[in-house]
Amino acid sequence: MKSTVETLSPTRVRLAVEVPFDELKASFDAAYKKIGAQVRVPGFRPGKVPGRILDQRVGRPVILEEVVNDAVPKAYDEAIRDNAVRVIGRPEIEVTKIEDGDVVAFTADVDVRPEMALPAMDSLAVTVEDLSVSDEDVDEQVAALRDRFATLTGVDRPAENGDVVSIDLEATLDGEPVEDGSATGMSHEVGSGQLIDGLDEALVGLSAGETTALQTELSTGEAAGQPADIAVTVRSVKSKVLPELDDEFAQTASEFDTMAELRADARARIQRVKAVGQGVQASDHLVEGLIESVAVPLPDSVVTSEVEWRKHNIVHQLEETGATLSGYLESEGQSEEDFDAELRANAEKAVATQLILDAYADQEQVAVTEEDLTQHIVMQARRYGVPPEQFAQQLSQGGQLPALMADVRRNKALALLLEAATITDESGNPVDLTPLRSGPGTGAAVASAEGDASAEDATEDDGAPDSDEAAAVPTDDSR
Fold it and tell me: Are 404 and 373 contacting, i.e. CB atoms less than 8 angstroms apart?
């Protein structure tokens, strides 16, 4: 087999491949076997019809078509290996010549990883915010714990912010009850903003037994986006009674004997959380700096695929809540053109990030071990709340293992970059990334930096609802 590579652009090549007939014996055997099993010829058992008879019965062109369909994908894969082409998309294949008894020729246009000039890893520098834990941070943590141990006492007065009320709700649209739009005896903290818009304001000042009405747009169901009338009846009003912040509370709410020990532990916990946040910020800033400094030619078809994938997920998620994209954009005051432009910008950032990390992974010869893959699967399975074995099976059946391995490889490349980079805070102090390296933070940082449409950052990245799937540059084996 002969093959050549022609560069069409920094991100696209054309493979020209010629396969002589003497290398097609396996494909001919497979074609005769497949077609022979479908053809009934008197005097021959199914699957045992000689090739020359099949040529006469079904026609040589039919045989050749089956041979080409079998041989071309194999020859394409071989040409990629022979020429060390780093493919990141699906090929557009055109058969250019079929000369019976001589040669089969075809071309394959395909997107490839572009060449790029990478900064030396030890030349990278990142600045992150200072890490500080204030007394107010600790007070907020302790207040949240205190609130969990509050008791409720019935009061004979109108509801105030912070009270817990039992309410009945009934929604109607044009005088007709809304399906699944009623609730009885629902517990709600006034001022929490956890139910419908305008409810907390309507509840303040109401006593037990009193009813009020408000109008608000429905957020879910078939009538989502339409203004509905909501009738609210207060059944009871209870006031929160918070425990005293003393040593007795510390012993009840924690394993500590004194409030001083509890506050010290709260401060240490906040310190650890902020340290991980510092590491994630370092990762984000590092990737943002690389995107700005490295010229990355972007394969248009890959970016387009990424945009379509992201938009599909957003639309699907909206549909699950009974909403539509047009309704969502209207509620956000955003045009579809602006939404598409923002979506494409985020997709371009994601693809550029992935290509840069792939290039560093190639440069540093990063490999993915079975242990790496297993750890990542366990972590992702925990995130989605499914057993690791089930999650791995779903990935395998969906053909997503190659994409997952690519994500793990990028995570490892980013970890190497963070280790080599000079990372300081705004005060000039070196930053210890041990909290990031020792936990699952690196993976989260990569997802955030890539602008992937994960549950944590889809709203920020796309200006759209969350999506639980991770973005990845498509390869021959993914998507």
Answer: yes
